Amino acid sequence: MATAAQSTTDTLPVSIADVRAAHARIRDSIVRTPTLVSKTLSALTGATIYLKFENLQFTAAYKERGALNTLLLLDEEAKARGVIAASAGNHAQGLSYHANRLGVPSTIVMPTNTPTVKVVQTEGHGATVVLHGSTFDEAYAHARELEVERGYTFVHPFDDARVIAGQGTVAIEMLAEVPALDALVVPIGGGGLISGMATVARAADHPIEVIGVQAELFPSMYNKLRHTDLPCAGDTLAEGIAVKQPGGLTAQMVEALVDDIVLVSERSLEESVSLLLQIEKTVVEGAGAAGLAAVLANKERFAGKTVGIVLCGGNIDTRLLANVLLRDLARSGRLARLRIQLRDQPGALYNVARIFDQERVNILELAHQRIFTNLPAKGLSLDVECETRDRAHLDRLLAALDTAGYEVKLIELA
């Protein structure tokens, strides 16, 4: 991967001039999202953390930038014929929104199992949605067929120089706001965002380290550049960067311009989504939290540096977000499920509940199990879901139950 000496971009598909031209082209039609310091996250990490709130774009993701730049570069004949893409995520939203605003017909091909809410949202931006195939690859292949049959312009989500240049405008704005940045930590799916941002970083007047981040379950660019063969599969929270095959253009640019790629765990992603909501009062999707997850997992690497993190998107299902927040409460000890062995006799529940009352622990839910248990016939298992102030408070409850002679098991999360 890149070193400080490998900063030339002369032979690459996108230049700093391309990114600057893209910014001049799109800046009046997108949100110039803020780049703000986070005092709390800085204290947690030992670095000076600046966050770029791309989740505040109209469609809640940076993908608008590349889509709009591509649309504005089409000639009038191509605009009249229309554009097509294969996407069930942020690229679909960004392309359809700006195509509709510019009067360009758009068609989005999505797999048949795409959640209805995403179909409705995309149609709401004026796109024609075609449901085809059960996988993204099948939807993509069909989109390329329609491109040829109907003369549409295909807009790739990442492997297109026009798209890469548009995405790079994120870094143009970040460095205009905070020229002293000496590291950029950027999520990688197909590689369009980091390719564009790294182009800007290499043109800066001082060295800027560029670190890419991928989910452990989908290390596709990591594999390509490190020549490893880690599996790319699983149900990741960071679905926006769950790309099995990175782009050809983007792989070329990442290899030339990016200093390193790190992998983050699902637990780190969950904790970062929760932290950003609690500390910054901002909603991000799993991919949007990947940069923070990387810094938190590698504090020594970034200690003392001025670090820019892109919150690249905020489109997360509300039920999934609720699960993430509740799981984080459980890991921090503020929610707990205890399994307590009792004798099946009058007063047993009252006696154990008294201990919860004495320790000022709130009981949320109770579940008795008399039949499906390996306890003796006169025994029962009691599951208690409860709320405590913190881990120390939970530990005091466990100690009190132990002192009273109860056998207790804490049900832990993975």
Description:
- With 414 residues, the protein is of the alpha/beta class.
- The chain folds into 3 domains: 16-62 and 165-326, Rossmann fold (3-Layer(aba) Sandwich); 83-151, Rossmann fold; 333-410, Alpha-Beta Plaits (2-Layer Sandwich).
- The chain is 44% helix and 18% strand.
- Strands 1-2-10-7-8-9 form a 6-stranded mixed sheet. A 4-stranded parallel sheet has the order 5-4-3-6, with helices on both faces.
- Strand 4, helix 6 and strand 5 (128-131) form a beta-alpha-beta unit.
- Helix 1 (16-26) packs across helix 3 (63-72).
- It is globular.
- The two termini are 34 Å apart.
- This is L-threonine dehydratase catabolic TdcB.
Biggest pleated sheet: 6 strands, mixed
- What is the total domain count? 3
Mean pLDDT: 93
What CATH calls the topology of the largest domain is Rossmann fold
Strand content: 15-25%
Give the class from helix and strand content and strand pairing: alpha/beta
Name of the CATH architecture of the largest domain: 3-Layer(aba) Sandwich
Low-confidence stretches: 3-7
Rg estimate, integer Å: 25 Å
* SS elements, strand count: 14
Number of helices: 17
Ends distance: 34 Å
The strand order across the widest sheet is 1-2-10-7-8-9
Q: Into which percent range does the helicity of residues fall? A: 40-55%
